Amino acid sequence: MTAEPAFRPVRELGTLLRSGEVTSVGLTRYFLDRLEEVGRPLNAVAAITRERALDEAAMADAELARGVDRGPLHGIPYGLKDIIAAPGAPTTWGAAPFRDQVLGYESAVGERLRNAGAVLLGKLATVELAGGMGYDRPDASLTGPALNPWDTSTWTGGSSSGPAAATAAGAVPFSIGSDTGGSIVMPAAWTGITGLRPTYGRVSRFGAMALAWSFDRLGPMCRSADDCGLVLEAIAGLDPRDPSSLAEPYRYSGRAARRDHFRIGVVTGSFDGVQDEVRANFESAVARLAELGTVEEVELPDFPYAEVAEVIMAAEISAAFDEFLDSGRAAELRATKARVHRLAAEALPARDYIRAQRIRRHIVVALDELACPFDALVAPMLGTVATPADESFAGLLGIAYPQRVNLASVTAGMPAISVPSGRGRSGLPTAVQLLGARLAENALLDVACALEACTGWPARHPHISIPSAQAMR
Amino acid sequence: MKQMQSGSGHNGSSLAGAPAACAGAAERSPEAEIAAQATRLIMQSQGPVVPEAQVAELEHAVLALVQAARTLRRYPLRNSDEPMTVNGCGPRERA
């Protein structure tokens, strides 16, 4: 191969493939090696599907040779978060009690990506049970704490920790994560990649572990917003096997989309409690957006977002795992907190769950009305940069106002995208979150692409210093 | 539901060390009292799966949930306000 492909965007890899400079088999071998040499030491890898990957890559090459082109993901390797089923590999959900679980069927996203010609490299690490049982330490995963490629003494955030680490480290061109309460956008923010949580129902969850049915979403984790759009187009769409999936088709607006004349709403108070560098980078991002359109302040409607989310998630998660909780096997989980935390839902009357869902309807309507006039609402994504990999992060994530903004969009089913905004303390990435009205992913992606063009961030990548095996335990 | 094993040691005294009980029963908030009672009930059904050392953690989680639910009960709703369904956060279920 003539060019180092590790950090190249999907479109460029596609150009290299179609020009004959590289083959899909060559790319696949390269990224399989990156996963072994870079991904594993970062604790980002759950399983590598080498044989399947090379078969799919050979098929992609053969099709291109015959003039069959399945689109922008044809021949491009990727990784799946290990809460998503794939034949030929265990699906451990990142948790010791499920370490031998084999689900012998393809997930909906796996099917769609295969139909788009993409090549599955393997399963990427996750916080155990996607963090749904509660955790407050980075090592709450079967594979250990996922290390942040920008500074391997820090962690990636969770729960899509493996997809974040592997994508940021150039060990996969893109990955698929899952998000119930921030599990795509938060690790994307801390690892300097772009993570898209699509509208609830946009992407089928068939084959993915159920955590909280009315919150769970799957979405792309990439090194640019443009890549996110390409991947979302491939994985979106109606699926009768997931009753939440929407019939509305999705087509990415792509490069032809507008890059200015945006209307942006800045969420007031959104940098309350954040680190100085996070605030400075946020203000810089807003200044850039002001050059691309109009910027005005908006106020988040006053709802008990955190309480609504907590009550509904507690009820749904404990229901999804009721047999597991009754079995006592939660004692095998790494996070001490996870062993009993969800048993608390037994104290939750049904009427409180229903009340939360009744309030939620008001939230959905109010936030849709708030977001509809704008191309994007903007706030910092997280109040801090990544925290140490060997320390508890208890209390750090929830204290700052950005988490309230995140929970509002989580509860309302709105799309959100985390976009890098610069580097903060210790040179670690910071990010902004862009929120949109439901089904308005293209407006969000347009704004995100324009912002990335201003910052030049997608061209930046970490210079990875892999710690010794001893240090990574 | 599992029954509590006899002699498992999960009893009122273990709950006395829980965070909500630290200030003493007389100073407990109504939510803390509910959480303590609820934790006892959970222990009766789930006792064998809750290690002694984690009873306080469980009571802490119950208290947080009780407080969240109580906060929601203060939010005004009309009789006609319907809940979203489990799969109903999509646009087809707009109010």
Overall shape of chain A: globular
What is the CATH topology of chain A? Answer: Amidase signature (AS) enzymes
- What is the CATH class of chain A? Alpha Beta
Overall number of strands of chain A: 13
Please tell me the overall pLDDT of chain A: 94
Strand pairing plus helix content of chain B: what structural class? mainly alpha
Q: Would you list the SSEs of chain A in sequence order as H and E?
A: HHEHEHEEEHEHEEHEHEHHHEHEEHH
The structural domain count of chain A equals 1
Q: In which range does the helix fraction of chain A lie?
A: 25-40%
| Rounded radius of gyration of chain A (Å) | 21 Å
Oligomer: heterodimer
The residue ranges of chain A in which pLDDT falls below 50 over 5 or more consecutive positions are 468-473
Radius of gyration of chain B: 18 Å
Query: Main sheet of chain A: which strands, in order across?
Result: 1-3-2-6-8-7-12-13-11-9-10
Q: Uncertain segments of chain B of ≥5 residues (pLDDT<50)?
A: 1-24
Amount of beta strand of chain B? under 5%
**How many H/I helices of chain A?**
14
CATH architecture of chain A: Alpha-Beta Complex
* Outline type of chain B: extended
Give the topology, please.
The complex is a heterodimer of chains A (473) and B (95).
Chain A: H1 10-19, H2 24-39, E1 45-48, H3 50-65, E2 77-81, H4 108-115, E3 119-124, E4 147-148, E5 151-155, H5 161-168, E6 175-179, H6 185-191, E7 194-197, E8 217-222, H7 225-235, E9 262-267, H8 276-290, E10 293-298, H9 305-320, H10 322-327, H11 350-371, E11 376-380, H12 401-412, E12 416-423, E13 429-435, H13 441-455, H14 469-472
Parallel strand pairs in A: 2-3, 2-6, 9-10, 9-11
Antiparallel strand pairs in A: 1-3, 4-5, 6-8, 7-8, 7-12, 11-13, 12-13
Chain B: H1 12-15, H2 30-46, H3 55-73
Helix pairs in contact in B: 2-3
Overview of this protein structure:
The complex is a heterodimer of chains A (473) and B (95). Chain A is α/β, with parallel strands linked by helices and 473 residues long. Chain A has 14 helices and 13 strands. Chain B is an all-alpha fold. Chain B has a domain at 29-77. Chain B is built from 3 helices and no strands. Mean pLDDT of chain B is 71; it is low at 1-24.
